[in-house]
Design a protein that fits this description.
The complex is a heterodimer of chains A (361) and B (128). Chain A is of the alpha+beta class and 361 residues long. Helix content of chain A is 21%, strand content 34%. Chain A has helices at residues 13-18, 38-47, 67-74, 122-133, 157-165, 207-216, 224-233, 267-276, and strands spanning 22-26, 29-34, 50-53, 58-63, 87-93, 99-109, 112-117, 139-142, 148-153, 175-180, 183-188, 197-202, 220-222, 280-287, 298-301, 304-315, 320-328, 337-342, 345-351. In chain A, strand 11 and strand 12 form a beta hairpin. Chain B has a single domain, classed as RNA polymerase II/Efflux pump adaptor protein, barrel-sandwich hybrid domain (OB fold (Dihydrolipoamide Acetyltransferase, E2P)), CATH 2.40.50.
């Protein structure tokens, strides 16, 4: 296998190689797609605990007296609703309300925020932050190289992290400063799998030791393959698949993350779309019977193209093909029967409700 | 199977497919290298019995969680059997790619085509 030398590597690159991970290019990074197998890793997260290297994700620090008004202008959610120590999902839009990126914001102090970006969008995000920051009393700093990021997810994740690293963990959707490996760390009760768990932002030098300590405590190393199947089962969006500058928040079902009264860039357009509805709606689907739909497959009713799959995979929990597709909005109701053209073969599918996978209680 | 293996009684195609040629018939499948590159196979759907497969042309697809891959025919012929057990247990392609993980059987239309295929040593060398 040839590997592009321009690809970036996380501080855990050698650790992944030593563990026998399969590495693939992803958003400019050389990342582990799997260790022992996507299905096993997926099931480990659903039933026990898994650890992901998410150090490819970017960080932007926002600080200063104008932080709140700056972020209210820049991102879609109501940042004022987030207390110190809180976390919030939000969107970064362009002037036409296209989705530049989806973000997690952490409020670290009264006038201090940390923004988590997607790897492939980090530079574009940073440029947009810088541009809008000119009008505010705020300091924006690229912090991507300051952090390694580990996501530990699954029903046993918290317990093992607490016992292994000897720290108490913030509750779900909260963030706190901690010491990990005698170095400052940020610990967040967030994730991308639909399971309970935490995300750890640590200094890059200690990442291999912390990773190894957690894996030695029984947490299963997981790659981007399982990260993708896990997020799809719970209908979390992936920018580049389900979101892009060609899609808007309302069609994507992310109206809940937009508060137009804050006056964010694109809020006028979002308000109109929310009031009038959109031509297309992103909807989850399940394949009935055999077959696995993939990104780009056309959705059909008879000979008419009525949508397009933006994410599709095999669900290890449901053991069938699942995914999400932009559909003509009148077809996006759960129960609607569809056909998906999978490389020339028609596969029966039906629109489902979110999430596709629900934990048994 | 965890360890790479390329049995000596098989013939190999550069697209990582094998043929076990017995008289005028051949059993076809994908190699250890192919299944390892693909990852856990979750779906295989064979061609129709009675249809023709053509040397060097794709005749079916195998899908892992992450990706789909064409399966190329190492030799030409008419499909006389499809491994139906793979519908419920496609993971046999990973666990046992040369025995229980076979894909189809064909009646050879041109037995001399087999001469163009590699033996085990040549195929293993091509992977170096």
């Amino acid at each position: 296998m040839t590997v592009d030398s321009a690809l970036r590597r996380t501080p855990l690159y050698e650790t992944h190689l030593d563990a026998g991970a399969k590495l693939v290019p992803f958003a400019g990074w050389e990342m582990p797609v799997q260790y022992d197998g996507i299905k096993e890793e997926h099931i480990a997260v659903r039933t026990h605990a898994g650890i992901f290297d998410t150090s490819h994700m970017g960080q932007i620090e926002v600080e200063g007296p104008g932080s709140l008004s700056f972020l209210q202008r820049l991102v879609t959610n109501d940042v004022a609703r987030m207390p110190v120590g809180g976390a919030q999902y939000s969107l970064l839009l362009d002037d036409e309300a296209g989705v530049v990126d989806d973000l997690f914001l952490y409020r670290l102090g009264h006038d201090r925020y940390l923004v988590i970006t997607n790897a492939g969008n980090h530079d574009a995000d940073l440029a947009r932050f810088g541009l809008v920051a000119r009008d505010f009393d705020v300091y924006v700093r690229d912090a991507r190289d300051n952090y390694a990021m580990l996501a530990v997810q699954g029903p046993n994740a918290r317990r093992i992290v607490e016992n292994t690293l000897h720290i108490d963990l913030p509750p779900r959707m909260k963030v706190g400063a901690r010491q990990i490996g005698r170095r400052p760390a940020i610990v967040c009760g967030t994730g991308y799998t639909g399971e309970d768990g935490v995300e750890l932002l640590i200094v890059p030098e200690i990442a291999p030791a912390i990773w190894t300590e957690l894996v030695d405590s029984g947490i299963v190393p997981c790659g981007l393959g399982a990260r993708d199947t896990l997020r799809m089962e719970v209908c979390f969006h992936l920018h580049g698949n389900d979101l892009s500058t060609e899609t808007d928040p309302i069609s994507a079902g992310l109206g809940w993350a937009c508060v137009e009264s804050t006056g964010f860039i694109g809020s006028d357009r979002v308000a109109v779309m929310r009031a009038n509805g959109t031509d297309e709606t992103l909807a989850p689907f399940v394949i009935e019977g055999a077959g696995i739909a993939r990104q780009g497959n056309p959705v059909m009713i008879g000979e008419e193209v009525v949508g397009e799959v933006t994410s599709g995979t095999f669900s290890p929990s449901l053991e069938k093909g699942i995914g999400m597709a932009y559909l003509r909005s009148d077809l996006a109701e759960p129960g609607t029967e569809l056909e998906i053209d999978v490389r020339g073969k028609r596969r029966m599918a039906s629109v489902s409700s979110k999430p596709l996978y629900r934990k048994e209680r | 199977m965890a360890e790479a293996s390329y049995p000596e009684d098989l013939k190999y195609h550069p697209e990582h497919d094998w043929a076990r040629i017995e008289g005028g018939e051949a059993t076809l499948g994908i190699t250890w290298y192919a299944q390892d590159s693909l990852g856990e196979v979750v779906f295989f759907e064979g061609p129709e019995i009675g249809s023709e497969v053509t040397k060097d042309q794709p005749y079916a697809e195998v899908e892992s969680v992450k990706a789909v891959s064409d399966v190329v025919a190492p030799v030409s012929g008419e499909v006389i059997a499809v491994n139906e057990s793979l519908a419920d247990a496609p993971e046999a392609i990973n666990a046992d790619p040369y025995e229980t993980g076979w894909l189809i059987k064909i009646r050879l239309s041109d037995p001399s085509e087999a001469d163009t295929l590699m033996d085990s040593a040549a195929y293993a060398a091509s992977l170096e």
